[in-house]
Amino acid sequence: MSQQLIKVKNNRYKAVIFFGGLVAIFGTYYLIKIHYKKGALITEGIVTTNYLHGINKSDFGSTVSAEIRFYANDSMVTILGPEGQPMDVGLIVPILYHADHPGNALVYTFEGFWLHGLIWCILPSIFWVAISLSVIGVRGSKFA
Length: 144
What we know:
By secondary structure, the chain is α+β, with helices and mostly antiparallel strands. It folds into 2 domains: 11-35 and 118-136, no CATH class; 40-107, no CATH class. The chain has helices at residues 11-38, 110-136, and strands at residues 41-54, 62-72, 75-80, 92-98, 101-107. It has a 5-stranded antiparallel beta sheet with strand order 3-2-1-4-5. Strand 1 (41-54) and strand 2 form a beta hairpin.
């Protein structure tokens, strides 16, 4: 039985396979965020406190998020800001929300809107790099 599933000899195809997978991972995330922004409204919220939450609310196993309040549909909505990022009390931040689900609002900053998901894209990217390089072969390896 062969040591590899696929043996790709042309370097151009190797590059297309490798970078195509990375573009698919990060592109999917980008499209999801663009879709969220499509019908969303923007408003301002105010940081009221920093909320400690987690497993045991001690230094180990817990995290801090800012509690943010804003008005949507003539009612006050309270959300938690980006996890692990305390904010100054009284700070006014932009909020992105949908009128039918204001409780699912996001802080519309790089950290609040983009960063968390980009960090989660790293795990499938590492998996993709490992799988694609092992399948398509790397020049200099004994299986290429």
